[in-house]
Amino acid sequence: MSQGNYDPRFPQPNPFAPQADGYGGYQGQQYPQQNYTGQNFPSQSYPPQRPKHAGSGLKTLLIILGVIGSLLGLMFVSCCGGLVYLAQPQKPSSAASQLFDLSLVPIPTLLTLPPPKKKFHVHPKPKTIGTRIVIDTFRKRSFAIPNPFQGEANFSAVSVGENSSTPGHSGKICVYLPLGEHAPRTLPAVLITVAGTNLLQGANFGPIEDISAGAEHLPYVQAGFAVVVYEMDGGAEVKSDEQLTVAYNQFKASCAGMVNARNAFEYILARIPQINPQQIYTAGHSSAGAAALLFAAHEPRVAGCVAYAPCADVAGFHPYGTILRMKPKFPGLIDFLHQSSPTTHAERIHCPVLLFSAEDDSVVDVQKTRDFAALLQKTNAQVTVYTVEEGDHYDAMIEEGIPAGIEWIKQRAGR
Q1: pTM (2 d.p.)
Q2: Which pLDDT value is given to residue 162?
Q3: Fold for domain 107-413?
């Protein structure tokens, strides 16, 4: 066929139609219309699909990995944030900085003190007579008790009240008086509670025949003081978390034993005429030292406070991990630990204070006692700190602490 001749056997392409570019598209971006009737064009969908460019699969993979990475990062930040939150001690409410309102619990009808029924005698020579369990953050540790004291005392025990359903009304008190007759308002008194608790529950008396009790009480009696020892609600022996929860709730309802202390104080004023109401001192060792300090903050009529190796910072005494573990079972735990801590109320303790500690105390670090003393001294000029080199948590108190406390009280009582 010659150039320029038309042969119908060989159809010629339309020179004005868009030409395929070989990549599924058309030159000039002109797409064929559905009414186009030209021939010999490649079959195309409408609109035509372009093939994926090289590397687009890698981009998709990177996008997916980016999304996954973002999600993992978000989870990491959330988890770490949660851990940081848990690691930070939770702050108590503002109400926990206030003293317990003891007026919410009425004073019971105080029963009459019965005649003395028991005389204690303590061996005259130092002798290890048993062991005593002292506080150590749920880890019970035994300390041998040397007892260098001797003597006798009139002893009586009585329930404070009769209503067992009201906090502080069913606890007992024990009263030691020096032998002989005493005119009204002539005896200084030392108010003490039972030591050796975990600061989450109260304390009950052991058998009165337990001679170890005399080691902490009789020295004051031999020095011419009356001694009044009180129980704190929630002092039943516990062997499970459930029992501890019950004891905690009872202790909390009694305002960390302050209702018991208040009732014992009122009992002295109403039922023990031999005691001088102007010379009632509060004292205690370890957890009982914390109670003594806390009551001194609540009761302005206290003449002075002697605290031997006291757990002054109740909230800081328990490891925070332990607090987190206990919190679900102990309602209001964070606030209660703060409110029951003498450290919280240091500025409210205005009476003279003697703090005693041993340098080698393995339960309450001596530096914590010094720190608490410094806190007290900001608002109280009558704070004395007495430390000894050795004796650990208990022996130092028995051998040197109580004698020092007796002399300190004598100076203030004019005896």
Answers
A1: 0.74
A2: 78
A3: Rossmann fold (3.40.50)
